[in-house]
Structure formats: C-alpha cells, structure tokens
C-alpha cells in the first residue's frame, strides 16, 4: 500500500487501559505511525477467553478504541478496527491450530498464569496465542510492537509462519517483535513482581488512563514500596521503587540517574507526591480528548467501521491464497 513495512498491534477490550499498556505499547505505536504501515486491532475475540459479561464487551471495545484515538492514533494514517468484524481471523486461527502442537501451547507463560488457580480452564485461553498468530500473519505484518510479556507469543507466531511455509509453500511473512527496553514491563502497584494488567481483580494495582487526579494521588500514595527509604533503581533488590522510577522517567522524560540525584536523601513520600503530579500532567491531554470523544461516540464507531472495511479487503485476498495452498474448497471450473 505505502511500501513501508507493515506493523500489527492488538489490544484486548478486557478493562480500562492502564499506564502499563500506554508506556509499554500505545505510546510507541503513536510515535511509530509514520515509520510503518500500521494496523491497530481491538481484539474482542481474545477478550472472550476469560469469563466476561457480554453486555460490557461492546462498550469496552468503544472505550479502548477511544483511548487509542485519544492517545494519538490517527485513523487517516493507520487502520483501526475490531477483530471480530473480520471473520478471516478465526478461519486462519483454525488452520494455524492444525500446525501448532499441544506441547508448545502448554508451555506458554500467559496460559500458565491465566489458568492458574481456576477449576475450569477454557480451551480459548489455551488457543489464545494461535488466534494472535492469525491476527499478525493475516496481514503480512513484518513488525509486532509489544510489551515484554508478549515476546513468547511472537516467537510462536514466527514458528507457525515458518512451519506453514515449509509445509504448504512460501505464504507468510515471518514477523519480528519490537520491544522497547524502557517501559516494556510496567509492574503492578500492589505487587511489583507481577506485571500491571487490565484483568487484575484489584483496581489499586493499576493507574487507568481515565483515573481522575485524586484517584491517581491515592493509588501512588498507597503503592507498595521496598524496605529502606532510598530512591534508587535496583530491579533485583528494589523492584517497587524501580518500577515507580521507570514510570516517572517515561512520563517526565527525565533519565533515571538524574531522578536518583534529585531525590537523594529525600525519602519515598516526597518522591511519590511528585510522581503523582507528573502522571496527572502526562495523562491530562489524553483525558481531555477522551472527554471530547465521549460527547460523540458515533465518531469512534464510524472510524471502526471504516477500518474494518479496509482490513477485510486485505484479509480476504490473503485467505484466498491460504485456502488455495492448503487445498481447501472446490477446484475451479474450467
Ligand atoms: P489483560 O490483563 O486482559 O491481558 P493487559 O493489560 O495484559 O490485559 P493486553 O490487551 O493483553 O493488556 O495487551 C496490550 C498491549 O499492552 C500488549 O502489547 C502488551 O504487551 C502491553 N502490555 C500489557 N501489560 C503491560 C505492562 N504491564 N507493561 C508494559 N506493556 C504491557
Ligand atoms: Mg495481556
């Protein structure tokens, strides 16, 4: 289309977007809009893999799309759409599933974490990375900008692409993950050994893009800290304060060593007070645009419809090739 490499990014409508999603993924997506031919997908089929309330899914889909637009995704330059609007994702998922093995899916860290402690583990959680591979391969994406947690899934996507190409002939681009070192893994505010997640049952564990200033101040004030009061970056021994330093550094655009110097001898509470103001200021323009979009939700829905039409065109063409390579359907009449 543009001659630029294509990038594919997905995000689940599983809850309010948090600063981990923003710093680890969305912010980079916005910055890279001119570098790649971008597709941004709200992956609602993935959001079904854990128990959810059907009446909440559509509002959440619109909310996530609004957050992306408010953060600076430009639908003129990029394709923004909803996964379930393009049926080809599920068709390709099935085909790739015939190539994936039980053993490799069982080894996925996300599967192990998301199924831990549940009596009933849906097969969807198990199949999650195969659907993700389909999302990416369907559009010949060369680059997948993600947070660190998705590295293993992109590795699987690469393996499935290569396996398909070996079995049925050269068909798919083998994609590369693009993981930025800074912000790739923002941790929970209540447990710095766990990543910040939309699906964490404790809302105090994350700061959402929509959180009002008072809520942000409270969450940061109550965030877990490490023993000893020194503001120093040491992920091994001081994971909590190191996480807060990362958040501060990315929002304020100040390198971590400079922050360590500024807060030398000052203790956690002053640091946290300033951090709250930095986060509030960083989110303010996004929140303002979110309010503007909320006043006219038709804009978001029309944008997603237009995006789906453009994505569908690409997906249908690719699936014709895939079906042919796999020998599916009827032979042509001559
Ligand atoms: P869920 O808990 O429902 O899985 P999530 O917070 O993990 O939600 P996703 O929709 O799964 O969010 O992921 C969207 C993008 O955000 C992905 O690129 C993912 O790598 C990135 N991401 C998610 N959590 C973090 C985090 N804590 N730090 C940095 N990036 C993250
Ligand atoms: Mg996730």
TrEMBL record:
<feature type="binding site">
    <location>
        <begin position="195"/>
        <end position="199"/>
    </location>
    <ligand>
        <name>ATP</name>
    </ligand>
</feature>
<dbReference type="InterPro" id="IPR050203">
    <property type="entry name" value="Trp-tRNA_synthetase"/>
</dbReference>
<feature type="short sequence motif" description="'KMSKS' region">
    <location>
        <begin position="195"/>
        <end position="199"/>
    </location>
</feature>
<dbReference type="Pfam" id="PF00579">
    <property type="entry name" value="tRNA-synt_1b"/>
</dbReference>
<comment type="subunit">
    <text>Homodimer.</text>
</comment>
<comment type="similarity">
    <text>Belongs to the class-I aminoacyl-tRNA synthetase family.</text>
</comment>
<keyword id="KW-0067">ATP-binding</keyword>
<keyword id="KW-0963">Cytoplasm</keyword>
<feature type="binding site">
    <location>
        <position position="186"/>
    </location>
    <ligand>
        <name>ATP</name>
    </ligand>
</feature>
<dbReference type="GO" id="GO:0006436">
    <property type="term" value="P:tryptophanyl-tRNA aminoacylation"/>
</dbReference>
<dbReference type="InterPro" id="IPR002305">
    <property type="entry name" value="aa-tRNA-synth_Ic"/>
</dbReference>
<keyword id="KW-0436">Ligase</keyword>
<dbReference type="InterPro" id="IPR002306">
    <property type="entry name" value="Trp-tRNA-ligase"/>
</dbReference>
<feature type="short sequence motif" description="'HIGH' region">
    <location>
        <begin position="13"/>
        <end position="21"/>
    </location>
</feature>
<keyword id="KW-0030">Aminoacyl-tRNA synthetase</keyword>
<dbReference type="GO" id="GO:0005829">
    <property type="term" value="C:cytosol"/>
</dbReference>
<dbReference type="InterPro" id="IPR001412">
    <property type="entry name" value="aa-tRNA-synth_I_CS"/>
</dbReference>
<dbReference type="InterPro" id="IPR024109">
    <property type="entry name" value="Trp-tRNA-ligase_bac-type"/>
</dbReference>
<dbReference type="GO" id="GO:0005524">
    <property type="term" value="F:ATP binding"/>
</dbReference>
<feature type="binding site">
    <location>
        <begin position="147"/>
        <end position="149"/>
    </location>
    <ligand>
        <name>ATP</name>
    </ligand>
</feature>
<dbReference type="InterPro" id="IPR014729">
    <property type="entry name" value="Rossmann-like_a/b/a_fold"/>
</dbReference>
<protein>
    <recommendedName>
        <fullName>Tryptophan--tRNA ligase</fullName>
        <ecNumber>6.1.1.2</ecNumber>
    </recommendedName>
</protein>
<comment type="function">
    <text>Catalyzes the attachment of tryptophan to tRNA(Trp).</text>
</comment>
<keyword id="KW-0648">Protein biosynthesis</keyword>
<feature type="binding site">
    <location>
        <position position="135"/>
    </location>
    <ligand>
        <name>L-tryptophan</name>
    </ligand>
</feature>
<keyword id="KW-0547">Nucleotide-binding</keyword>
<feature type="binding site">
    <location>
        <begin position="20"/>
        <end position="21"/>
    </location>
    <ligand>
        <name>ATP</name>
    </ligand>
</feature>
<feature type="binding site">
    <location>
        <begin position="12"/>
        <end position="14"/>
    </location>
    <ligand>
        <name>ATP</name>
    </ligand>
</feature>
<dbReference type="GO" id="GO:0004830">
    <property type="term" value="F:tryptophan-tRNA ligase activity"/>
</dbReference>
